[in-house]
Design brief:
Elements lengths: L1 H16 L3 H7 E8 L11 E3 H13 L3 E6 L3 E3 L2 E11 L5 E4 L2 E7 L2 E8 L2 H7 L5
Parallel strand pairs: 1-8
Antiparallel strand pairs: 1-2, 3-5, 4-5, 5-6, 5-7, 7-8
Helix pairs in contact: 1-2, 2-3
Amino acid sequence: MSRENVEVVKAAIDAGNREDWDALVQAAAPNFELDMSRSRSFRGAAVYGLDQLRGFLVEFAESWESVRIEPHEFIEAGDLVVVPWTTRARGRDGIEVVSRPTFVWTIRDGAIERLSMYQERKDALEALGLSE
C-alpha cells in the first residue's frame, strides 16, 4: 500500500503547486489535521482541521507572488510518507525565501488523514522511530 500512498502525496504536492485547493481538500479525509505546531514562521502555528484547510492554503499562497514545493525524496513507512522538501517563495517585493522543512503524511484508505511539519528531516524520522 505504501507505493499508492506515495502517489497520493505526489498528487497532493502537484495540486498545491498548481494552487488547486479543490483537489487538495478532496484528497483529505473528513478527520484531516494539518499540524504546524513545530513551525517557527507561521503566526499562531497550530493544528488545522479540514474545515480550516482551504483558508490556510489560500492565505499562505496569497502572501507570496509565487510558491513552489520541490520534494527531495519520499520515504515510505506503512501508512506514513516522509517528504523532505525545499519551498521556494518569492515575496511581492521580489525577495526570495527558501525553506527546507520535512512533512510526515499519514495516508489511510487513499486519503490524507494528517500532515505534520518538522523543521528538520532527522526530527521527523526520530519522531517516527526511524533512523537516517
